[in-house]
């Protein structure tokens, strides 16, 4: 990790700046001496190849962070396979190809820990990629992300450009999607615990068995790691981004209930899928650089709930499915 990319004076385009991760990257980049470029969805549809080429040629960024993606939790992935596969393939390909045409020097592509085989060794090293079958509930998204990281490698190999990719673990935090049908587990449980507390209900329903294990990273920590990689990493392999620690979904539910201040009893809904049994990332490559997360799970959850409470009254929390 020794080929530093100096952000000073650079124009950095963050694709997907309205999303949870993209907005955290914009907040983190504000501390760097660079110019941040964003574009509203109403002005540019990233599915429109000609539009993306034009926009990139007109704005000429020096670096691109590809944080635009169709994302969702376990049910949404399973129910909307075309959206997850097609939209992600098209958007990431448009952005990368247009960036290359416009001579972008550095590009950071974001994937996800679901790219790894369902029964990968734990913790999962970067080289577990493509060593076994994927978890069926999110294979559509995973295939698109694998194609994206391979496209970065292909651009490096064929054209010698510095396109890199990072694979963050399950992320959560401010700006998350709290729609129960399409969200990930943390915003879902936080909303359910909050509403149970408000209504004086004594039951908090958790999907599946509660036994799967997951690793969670607070989104501001993720943004910090990603900007660190943008500046300091230049390599062919993708890099895992996580905390190196995981917990069961049942333990997570108890922690969320405690942060929210709900004394509801946790119940399990076995009709909902568990998904992959465990996906803990091996973060030794990232940690070897000295980078560490700042937020514990509890403090990240407290930050997220404080944000939720500050924004819920004003109608600024996403409580229904985002339009695709
Ligand atoms: P995954 O990491 O791709 O499986 O994504 P999720 O964050 O959607 O789910 C993680 C785990 O939490 C799975 O085992 C889910 O069954 C479980 N889970 C428990 N309750 C919920 C819930 O209310 N919503 C979601 N999305 N997952 C839940």
From TrEMBL:
<comment type="function">
    <text>Catalyzes the two-step NADP-dependent conversion of GDP-4-dehydro-6-deoxy-D-mannose to GDP-fucose, involving an epimerase and a reductase reaction.</text>
</comment>
<dbReference type="GO" id="GO:0016853">
    <property type="term" value="F:isomerase activity"/>
</dbReference>
<dbReference type="InterPro" id="IPR028614">
    <property type="entry name" value="GDP_fucose/colitose_synth"/>
</dbReference>
<feature type="binding site">
    <location>
        <position position="184"/>
    </location>
    <ligand>
        <name>NADP(+)</name>
    </ligand>
</feature>
<feature type="active site" description="Proton donor/acceptor">
    <location>
        <position position="141"/>
    </location>
</feature>
<protein>
    <recommendedName>
        <fullName>GDP-L-fucose synthase</fullName>
        <ecNumber>1.1.1.271</ecNumber>
    </recommendedName>
</protein>
<feature type="binding site">
    <location>
        <position position="207"/>
    </location>
    <ligand>
        <name>substrate</name>
    </ligand>
</feature>
<comment type="similarity">
    <text>Belongs to the NAD(P)-dependent epimerase/dehydratase family. Fucose synthase subfamily.</text>
</comment>
<dbReference type="GO" id="GO:0042351">
    <property type="term" value="P:'de novo' GDP-L-fucose biosynthetic process"/>
</dbReference>
<keyword id="KW-0413">Isomerase</keyword>
<keyword id="KW-0560">Oxidoreductase</keyword>
<feature type="binding site">
    <location>
        <position position="274"/>
    </location>
    <ligand>
        <name>substrate</name>
    </ligand>
</feature>
<feature type="binding site">
    <location>
        <begin position="168"/>
        <end position="171"/>
    </location>
    <ligand>
        <name>NADP(+)</name>
    </ligand>
</feature>
<feature type="domain" description="NAD-dependent epimerase/dehydratase">
    <location>
        <begin position="12"/>
        <end position="242"/>
    </location>
</feature>
<feature type="binding site">
    <location>
        <position position="145"/>
    </location>
    <ligand>
        <name>NADP(+)</name>
    </ligand>
</feature>
<dbReference type="Pfam" id="PF01370">
    <property type="entry name" value="Epimerase"/>
</dbReference>
<dbReference type="GO" id="GO:0070401">
    <property type="term" value="F:NADP+ binding"/>
</dbReference>
<feature type="site" description="Important for catalytic activity">
    <location>
        <position position="114"/>
    </location>
</feature>
<feature type="binding site">
    <location>
        <begin position="16"/>
        <end position="22"/>
    </location>
    <ligand>
        <name>NADP(+)</name>
    </ligand>
</feature>
<feature type="binding site">
    <location>
        <position position="192"/>
    </location>
    <ligand>
        <name>substrate</name>
    </ligand>
</feature>
<dbReference type="InterPro" id="IPR001509">
    <property type="entry name" value="Epimerase_deHydtase"/>
</dbReference>
<feature type="binding site">
    <location>
        <position position="214"/>
    </location>
    <ligand>
        <name>substrate</name>
    </ligand>
</feature>
<comment type="pathway">
    <text>Nucleotide-sugar biosynthesis; GDP-L-fucose biosynthesis via de novo pathway; GDP-L-fucose from GDP-alpha-D-mannose: step 2/2.</text>
</comment>
<dbReference type="InterPro" id="IPR036291">
    <property type="entry name" value="NAD(P)-bd_dom_sf"/>
</dbReference>
<feature type="site" description="Important for catalytic activity">
    <location>
        <position position="112"/>
    </location>
</feature>
<keyword id="KW-0521">NADP</keyword>
<feature type="binding site">
    <location>
        <begin position="110"/>
        <end position="113"/>
    </location>
    <ligand>
        <name>NADP(+)</name>
    </ligand>
</feature>
<dbReference type="GO" id="GO:0050577">
    <property type="term" value="F:GDP-L-fucose synthase activity"/>
</dbReference>
<keyword id="KW-0511">Multifunctional enzyme</keyword>
């Amino acid at each position: 990790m020794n080929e530093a990319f100096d952000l000073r004076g650079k124009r950095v385009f963050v694709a997907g700046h309205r999303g949870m991760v993209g907005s955290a990257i914009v907040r983190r980049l504000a501390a760097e001496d660079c110019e941040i470029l964003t574009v509203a969805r109403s002005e540019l549809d990233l599915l429109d190849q000609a539009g993306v080429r034009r926009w990139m040629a007109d704005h000429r960024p020096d670096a691109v962070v590809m944080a635009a993606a169709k994302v969702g939790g376990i049910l949404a992935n399973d129910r909307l396979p075309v959206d997850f596969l097609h939209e992600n393939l098209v958007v990431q390909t448009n952005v990368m190809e247009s960036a290359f045409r416009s001579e972008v020097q550095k590009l950071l592509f974001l994937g996800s820990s679901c790219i790894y085989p369902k029964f990968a060794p734990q913790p999962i090293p970067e080289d577990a990629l493509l060593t076994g079958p994927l978890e069926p509930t999110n294979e559509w998204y995973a295939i698109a992300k694998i194609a994206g990281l391979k496209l970065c490698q292909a651009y490096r190999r064929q054209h010698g450009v510095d396109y890199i990719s990072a694979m963050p673990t399950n992320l959560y935090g401010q700006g998350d999607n709290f729609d129960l049908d399409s969200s990930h587990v943390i915003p879902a449980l936080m909303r359910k615990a909050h509403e149970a507390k408000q209504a004086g209900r004594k039951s908090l329903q958790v999907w599946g068995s509660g036994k799967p294990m997951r690793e969670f990273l607070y989104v501001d920590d993720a943004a910090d790691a990603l900007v660190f990689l943008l500046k300091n990493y230049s390599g062919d392999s993708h890099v895992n981004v996580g905390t190196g620690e995981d917990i069961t979904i049942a333990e997570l539910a108890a922690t969320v209930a405690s942060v929210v201040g709900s004394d509801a009893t946790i119940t399990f809904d076995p009709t909902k899928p568990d998904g992959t049994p465990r996906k803990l990332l091996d973060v030794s490559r990232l940690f070897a650089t000295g980078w560490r997360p700042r937020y514990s799970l509890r403090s990240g959850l407290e930050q997220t709930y404080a944000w939720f409470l500050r924004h819920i009254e004003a109608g600024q929390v996403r409580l229904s499915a985002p339009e695709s």
